[in-house]
């Protein structure tokens, strides 16, 4: 089976009357992202009949059976109880490494379609998208925080940081790592995102999970971020955690000043003292 390509996708779409339009989304629609061999094809087919396309295996007959796949709209995991999805998505990786994320969207629900700013119209049989704006990443730009957002993110970080410290002193490694990575780190990354946004007039994106953040940080700052990651060794985790809390407070103070936001310094300093007291109790 040949690799997934624009030509292969469009050949199917042009030949199948049920497919009325083809829209490219994702990184391939983003001129700011350097292409590489691992890029997915994120494609949307506007179709007149989803069920018949599913039933006659149009997708598999055209692109072949994937080596790995997920059909999220057939799954209970991640679904919302009582809500029937409008569209249907195939997530497929092939033996040659090609990946196609293909969504079938019903043309009769066009009024409910939410355009992604990273959209390029590849085919439009009915001139439905002739006024589609030029693709850009504006939907993904870092947004300036409100005072409430800033306060609540900082509060969540400091409050939940105490759980990391307690988990580490008890050597509950799985708990401590889970709290640090799934609860505390997202707040840390949010401040980093706001830092980047504030330095670029809130007109840039750092990508999903901060994957583009390296290009916006100094080497020193980026290396500091990397030092907040560790293995499961307790002492190494303490060191990474202390780097994170120290840097978070530094970011909090700088953002407060730059964006004219109130900073709860008492909360931060009391939490740092609490963490230090726990760390000192084990001879840290």
Q: What structural class is derived from the secondary structure elements?
A: alpha+beta
Based on the structure given, which CATH architecture of the largest domain is correct? Answer: Up-down Bundle
- Please identify which CATH superfamily of the largest domain we are dealing with: Nucleotidyltransferases  domain 2
**What is the mean predicted local confidence, pLDDT?**
96
Please identify the top-level CATH class of the largest domain: Mainly Alpha
Question: Percent helix among the residues?
Answer: 40-55%
Tell me the fraction of residues in β-strands, as a range.
5-15%
Total number of beta strands: 6
Listing every helix as H and every strand as E from the N terminus to the C terminus, the arrangement reads: HEEHHEEEEHHHHH
Organism: Myroides marinus
Pfam families: Adenyl_transf (PF04439)
GO molecular function: nucleotidyltransferase activity
Keywords: Nucleotidyltransferase, Transferase
How would you characterize this protein structure?
- With 284 residues, the chain is α+β, with helices and mostly antiparallel strands.
- It has two domains: 6-139, Beta Polymerase, domain 2; 142-280, Four Helix Bundle (Hemerythrin (Met), subunit A), CATH 1.20.120.330.
- It is 43% helix and 13% strand.
- A six-stranded mixed sheet has the order 3-4-5-2-1-6, covered by helices on one side.
- β4 (88-93) and β5 form a beta hairpin.
- α4 runs antiparallel to α5 (173-199) and α5 (173-199) runs parallel beside α7 (234-258).
- The longest helix has 27 residues, at 173-199.
- It is elongated.
- The termini are far apart.
- Keywords: Nucleotidyltransferase, Transferase.
- This is Aminoglycoside 6-adenylyltransferase.
- GO terms for molecular function: nucleotidyltransferase activity.
